[in-house]
Amino acid sequence: MSAISAAPLPDPAHTRWVDEAVARVDEALAAAIPPRGAGGLTEVMAYASLQGGKRLRPLLVLAACEALGGSRPAALRAAVAVELIHAYSLVHDDLPCMDDDVLRRGQPTTHVVHGEAMAMLAGDAMQALAFEVLTPETGIAPALQARWVACLARAAGHAGMAGGQAIDLMHVGKSLDLAGLEHMHALKTGCLLQASVAMGAMAGDADSSGQHQLASCVDQPVWPHLMDYGRWLGLAFQVVDDILDVTQDSSTLGKTAGKDEASNKPTFVSLMGLAAAQAYALDIHARALAALDACHLPLPGARPLRDLAHQVVSRSH
Amino acid sequence: MSAISAAPLPDPAHTRWVDEAVARVDEALAAAIPPRGAGGLTEVMAYASLQGGKRLRPLLVLAACEALGGSRPAALRAAVAVELIHAYSLVHDDLPCMDDDVLRRGQPTTHVVHGEAMAMLAGDAMQALAFEVLTPETGIAPALQARWVACLARAAGHAGMAGGQAIDLMHVGKSLDLAGLEHMHALKTGCLLQASVAMGAMAGDADSSGQHQLASCVDQPVWPHLMDYGRWLGLAFQVVDDILDVTQDSSTLGKTAGKDEASNKPTFVSLMGLAAAQAYALDIHARALAALDACHLPLPGARPLRDLAHQVVSRSH
User: Where does the source fall among the domains of life (chains A, B) (predicted)?
Assistant: First the structure.
């Protein structure tokens, strides 16, 4: 059952696109993580990265690249990098000193299997690997590498993901109004989702030699609309996450359900009520689509971005 | 008292160079950490980064840049970035799930003051900030930015610092021979010290437009010798660290003395004995200087690199 009954149904062509893209991402991720020695750090990194998952961020990278008419090989590096950042954040977030969670993607969390110290180090090494993946010696224009790194580092750091997690941490058991909640989530999850769109678009618009093309992408009229799309999609993702936390069970989610209420965290559902949160998710979804329409991107290249917005509100886990 | 009685005395001109360089680094570090909100993540990042410290890695960056005839403003970004990586690693290393240490640079460790969760998040955000600092929109050639990021990410990750920490963790209470110990330290501390030299040299050899100059630096005959210097200096640093752990008290070190023996960690002193470890440190110091001589770098630009090698073996904390 999806989070919202009025949400659009998944399109079969999109399902095929997703399946094929996820397979490519998983292959590239596995190749990016160096050969595993038993009991070593890279084995822990592999455990934390290769257990499946929705791969929403890499899909956004690839979809944005295709929407701008780019080719996939360059964008795959950015896709792997954003997923490594996301996966490391889950490892650290699940640690006992943070959310203390034992279940993730239907499997025991990394520290449960490999111990807290190795889990923390693996997360640290995954963040470093993300930036290493973005900066190969050849094949990607240095200007694109530098812009990717700047974009991802900002989205992952104090003004993005880590900063949002800190705000989250400081508000357990405290009240937060809707604006405060949206700000927290904009940082905690929104920045990395938006960066995924941005990095894919940068790849789509740059050729292998190309500073000029890159600059033109960010300066084009399409850019602010594309960033709006990323922001609304990020917000929709989080509202739906809060809805799923109260409407689904742990086995469907692959993680512990009902955590938010149990830990007394403010959520869109606790602030608005379930029905209003569902209506809000649909409203934000419509805004994401409107922002995408304003980009005037040619079809069929732009279709995956549109379908991913559908997927975010219609998902069941 | 210095670690090794036969070590060269500090040169007054070098002391002045160090004092001036440390002041510039501290200023740049403070500027890189965004404005602090009370109780927020950036306050924790500042606590973890701005408590002083030897700043050896930033000094190596600046010294290598000067040795190659470069100017300081570009190198300062690299200096700040390596120090942020080093400082974050200390925060994570001190956490209860790792070394569980309460004293660092004479102050309570970050998690003692700000809690474990905020300490971990601050470390994560400091790593991201390091890469953000390396990739400004203007002022540094994109090719240099990309090479810096690749170099730092590799040195910080699974094949460098984090990988060395994992090996260290897996060998507490276990035996490790000299080759194994050197490999562990080469990763844990050596890679980042060597990367500091490399990043400074890259900055010294690149002008603001410059891919050609950068490529020439890495391809020049000087490069392998400079990397040898970095490797020997890193090893000397660690041997001296192990010596200081048994010869100095906590107040001199600014961190808990005698930790290695108490936690049954293999060290150069436990494997070789104190006198042999001291002789070994001087031997490695001589090798670092020989590697530097082989670079045939012009004086006075190359002097700080030479003096930093002296400083590493003659330090008392």
Answer: Bacteria
Domains of chain B: 12-314 (1.10.600.10)
CA distance A151 to chain B (A): 8
Write the CA distances from B288 to A155, B8, B200, integer angstroms: 40, 14, 17
Q: Mind spelling out the 3-state secondary structure of B125-188? A: HHHHHHHHHCCCCCCCCHHHHHHHHHHHHHHHCCCCHHHHHHHHHHCCCCCCCHHHHHHHHHHH
Instruction: Convert the pLDDT of each residue in B174-219 to its tens digit.
Output: 888 999 999 999 999 999 999 999 999 999 875 444 444 444 566 6
Taking CB atoms and an 8 Å cutoff, what residues of chain A touch B214? none
The closest alpha carbon to A268, from A233, A286, A242, A288, belongs to A242
The rounded radius of gyration (Å) of the Cα atoms in chain A is 19
How does residue B28 score in pLDDT terms, banded at 50, 70 and 90?
Answer: very high
Question: Which residues of chain A are modeled with pLDDT < 50?
Answer: 207-215
pLDDT tens digit sequence for A54-78? 999 999 999 999 998 887 888 999 9
Interface touch A153/B128, C-beta < 8 Å: yes
Establish whether this prediction's ipTM goes over 0.85.
Answer: yes
Give yes or no for a contact between A80 and A133, defined as CB atoms under 8 angstroms apart: yes
Give the Cα separation of A250 and A113 in Å (integer): 19
The beta-carbon neighbor of A162 closest among B41, B142, B149 is: B41
CA of B95: which chain A residue's CA is closest? A117
Which pLDDT value is given to residue A118?
97
C-alpha to C-alpha distance for A97 and A81, rounded to whole angstroms: 26
Say if CB A69 and CB A204 are below 8 A apart: yes
Which residues in chain B touch residue A44, judged by CB atoms under 8 angstroms apart? 166
For chain A, the 3-state helix, strand and coil shares in percent, each to the nearest 5, are 70, 0, 30
Residue B145 has pLDDT above 70, yes or no: yes
- The token duo for B137 is 């929109």
